[in-house]
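Before the break, one more example. Copy the sequence into your notebook; we will annotate it together after we see the structure.
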Amino acid sequence: RVVAGLNYVMEKAPDNARLILEVAAGAGAVIGDKVEELAMIYSQLERKENVGFGLDTQHMWASGYDFQNDLESVIDNVEKELGLDKVWSIHLNDSKTALASRKDRHENIGEGLIGNDALHKVFTHKKLAHIPFILETPALESLDGARSELEKLRAFLN
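Here is what the structure looks like once it is written out:
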């Protein structure tokens, strides 16, 4: 049903429309909390050239992808299953919940259980350098909070 629905949407969409499938946090009976599931869906789509993937650090953490202790394996798995050229965005955020919690609870950079060191390594990883990062943290609800989050990212680059 997922494939049929996505094929229908893309059939009705303009030729230049792009669709990004994001890794889910895994709450409930969800499809797409593993990159292998997204790869399976993608393999059956009719307009593959218009479909890419979005990674979300908190969602992936909640789904069991360990950025702290196994970052290289996580990236290698994404590369093998999806292809890094098909990863079109990364939502960067920390997590209020534990690894494999299956709960979607975003936290500000460095204030959650993924942690500053692991997020720094994700943000500056050479294999991910071509992918746009999008901040998606609670602090972005205010201008001061957004400034604070951007300062954290600038510190990652120094």
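Helices lie at 2-12, 35-43, 57-62, 71-81, 116-123, 143-157. The chain has a mean pLDDT of 97. Try to locate both features in your own notes.
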